[in-house]
Amino acid sequence: MYRRVYFDNAASSFPKPQSVVYAVQNILKTNTSNPGRSGHYMSSGIAKEVYSVRKKIADFFGTDETLTIFTQNATHAINLLFFGLLERGDEVIISDLEHNAVLRPLHALKKRGVTFKIFETGNKSVENCEHLITENTKLIFITGASNVTGETLPVRQIAEVAKKHNVLFGIDTAQSAGVVSYDMQKDNIDFICGTGHKSLLGIQGVGFLLMKQPIEIQPLIYGGTGSESLNANQPITFPEGLESGTISTPAIIGLGAAIDFISQNSKYIYEKEKKLYSYAYEKLLKNEFITVYSSEKFGVPTISFNVKGKPSESVCEYLSKKGVCLRGGFHCTLLAHQKLKTTDYGICRASFSPFNNTDEIDYMCSLLNSERLSEI
Amino acid sequence: MQKCILVKSVTHAQKARDLLSAKGISSYISKQNFSKAHGCSWCVKVNSLYTDKSIEILNEGGVRMTGDIFDV
After folding, report:
1. What is the pLDDT of residues B2-32, one digit of tens each?
2. What is the rounded CA–CA span in Å between residue A304 and residue A349?
3. What is the interface pTM, i.e. ipTM, of the complex?
4. Does A39 touch chain B (CB under 8 A)?
5. Pairing mode, strands A290-292 and A302-307
6. What CATH number is associated with residue B60?
7. Of the residues A203, A321, A349, A360, which has the fewest C-beta atoms closer than 10 A?
8. What are the pLDDT digits (tens) for A198-234?
9. Which of B10, B15, B64 sits opposite A226 (nearest CB)?
10. Which of A59, A227, A234, A242 best tests the B interface by mutation, with the highest count of B CBs <10 A?
């Protein structure tokens, strides 16, 4: 029996803080009524709990609770933003590191007359992005950090460019929230899309779209909102007008506990994850049989590599048999793999959380030394 | 006597309660169907002496109200 090592936190973090587990368990035991629907004391009680988390998220990112819209996940939030905001003739600018959660909705929106352009990231990310802006550009949307390499993008500088050209600016924080701090007001970020279950350490089932100020967005899903029930037209009052259907209260309550955990330990989490990243980077770099794709500079705790000549899924399968969980393949990210020229074998991705340690990295690296590689 | 200020959703009702509380005005939230034009609505009940002041606070705070105010 091998030890269990979980390095797939960029897909979904594990384990969760005890406070998150407790909060979810507690709400499941004490109140699973529907918030914002009925008027009885249990529904009112859970609505109060949901409101407190909504406010917590809003405060964490620097916006208002009425502009904090719960979704199922980050992909849902991105789809809500794109399909709700963009119209025929609009143009969007994205980076060459975007997840398929960004690429595919925009690709689908081509049929509705929305176009998009991709700028090259690197030393001249800001200039490359600005160069693509035209009078039709409505939105610049970039990831806070690549889910493949862990590289962070210059969010604040690109936000300045967007502001200068009177273009809306949004970010995908699926990988970076909780590691990198954002303030929508100070950083000029019009939209934040995110999820609870990755770097924020909550559970699966909740994401969010945040707006800096009220902007007209059409719903992605129509239905019950707990208000104006005699009106056949969907009420477009934020946030409920964009949240039709029952929200995942246990996941929301868990996210509230997770944000408390991160707020109380933010410095420790950042330093720990930076240390793990640097440690893994140095060790992998020393192995002559390994190609490392991530840079020395820490962004978020995700590091990508390949064993030379071996398909990434074969390496990850081998590691899994030894108890180590990594993600191989293409990480739902066509653009980044095209950029890295890894569309043949994919990449092995190790992503850390504050609950990992250097012993676990030593164990993974020991499985990748020259004597062991013949096992792959 | 109390007045019910109808607001557009449960989130706005709770934001209203927080804003009023911060200004020393106590309020109570309940679900109501006074208005057939709206169906389900959320009511922020305040002492009628503070109705105008409450509306001013809620307007300043960006709370979305339906425009309906009832005696309760």
Report:
1. 999 999 999 999 999 999 999 999 999 999 8
2. 5
3. 0.90
4. yes
5. antiparallel
6. 3.30.70.120
7. A321
8. 999 999 999 999 999 999 999 999 999 888 888 899 9
9. B10
10. A227
